[in-house]
Amino acid sequence: QGQLVESGGGLVQFGGSLTLSCAASGFIFSAYQMNWYRQPPGKERELVASINGFGDRQSYADSVKGRFSISRINAENAVYLQMNTLKPEDTAVYYCNAEAGSSPQFWGQGTQVTVSS
To answer: What is the greatest pairwise CA distance in the chain?
Structure first.
């Protein structure tokens, strides 16, 4: 069974940076699109960024475009989210997700990111 473990969350000041990491195991990592979602307090979970299996295509939510960067290292079964110029509205629990067509998806437990104003 696939497992995802996020790390790197924490408290950061407005305008600061954080890098989230997600370690994957139990499935063929390179066959899966990897996504970062987030769920702000009291709001729905939303897709933040995606990267395909090869790592050559990325997409971003408009709210983070130009500030966040998703990357992956297939040899290490890891995906990252570099977050720059953080804003208070980026405060959320961030989740790593793996999806591949009709195969079961995998989710991490989430990591809290808090941006102080």
So the answer is: 41
